[in-house]
Amino acid sequence: MRSFTESGLRFTFNKDWVVKKYDSHRYYKGLSGMGLKGIDFIALNLKENLVAFFEVKNYRTRFHQNTGEPIYPEPKPAHQLAQALSDKVSDTLLAIDAITTYYRKSLLYRWLQPLYLRLPFYIGDRFFWTKVENCIYQHENLAYVLWVELQEKDLHYQDQLKQQTDLLLKNEFGVIYVADMADQPFPQSLAVHPAS
Question: Does residue 92 register a pLDDT over 60?
Answer without folding.
Answer: yes
